[in-house]
Design a protein that fits this description.
9% of the residues lie in helices and 57% in strands. By secondary structure, the protein is mainly beta. It has one domain. The strands form two sheets. Strands 3-6-7-9-10-13-14-15 form an eight-stranded antiparallel β-barrel. Strands 2-1-16 form a three-stranded antiparallel β-sheet, with no helix packed on it. The protein is elongated. 53% of the residues are buried.
């Protein structure tokens, strides 16, 4: 569950970044003009739900777009304050957003180490989740600073047997830079 939640967080972050990158037929705008520069978003309520649930108090995703492009590589992706569990980003991947506001992640990979006690003995489970090519992870509410994660299944990469086959990433990311975005 924890790995699934972590993967979910990764997907959300990727979705936030993808909102700033793009396809040839769409353009990211802010304030009515094609946007060029850093796009940064954070969440305080991201979860990865699966076999083990992981809740992180903070997650950040950032990237840079040029000339209003709707796709971009992710420069920053992190998950912090995850309780006893450890969530690490192996690959930031890339994000993109469609003209309909759909946010997708490609090539992001998150590893989760879940620390629990079973019958008084410490047990650690290690899981890795990865977004494939164009995994839809959320939606950008156009003209606002909000990206909602959809709880999309993010597949597990072969790791410990206690990991779920996928994780669902849920949460809301708020765009802090540049502010409200629209995809034209």
């Amino acid at each position: 569950m924890k790995y699934v939640k972590m993967l979910g967080l990764l997907a959300v972050a990727a979705a936030a970044l993808m909102a700033f990158a793009g396809t040839a037929s769409a353009t990211i705008t802010s304030g009515g003009s094609a946007y060029t520069g850093e796009i940064s978003a954070s969440s305080s309520n991201s979860e990865l739900d699966g076999t083990v649930d992981v809740k992180c108090k903070s997650s950040t995703v950032a990237g840079t777009t040029t000339s209003g492009a709707t796709s971009s590589s992710v420069s920053t992706l992190d998950f912090t304050e995850c309780g006893a569990d450890t969530v690490s980003v192996v690959k930031n991947g890339s994000l993109s957003i469609s003209s309909a506001g759909s946010v997708s992640s490609s090539g992001a990979e998150v590893t989760v180490q879940v620390h629990r006690s079973v019958f008084g003995f410490p047990v650690t489970t290690h899981c890795i989740y990865s977004t494939g090519a164009g995994t839809t992870v959320g939606t950008l509410t156009e003209g606002t600073t909000t990206i909602h994660l959809l709880g999309t299944n993010i597949p597990q990469v072969a790791t410990d047997g206690g990991c779920g086959s996928n994780a669902q990433w849920t949460g809301t990311y708020t765009i802090s830079k540049p502010g409200a975005l629209t995809v034209d």
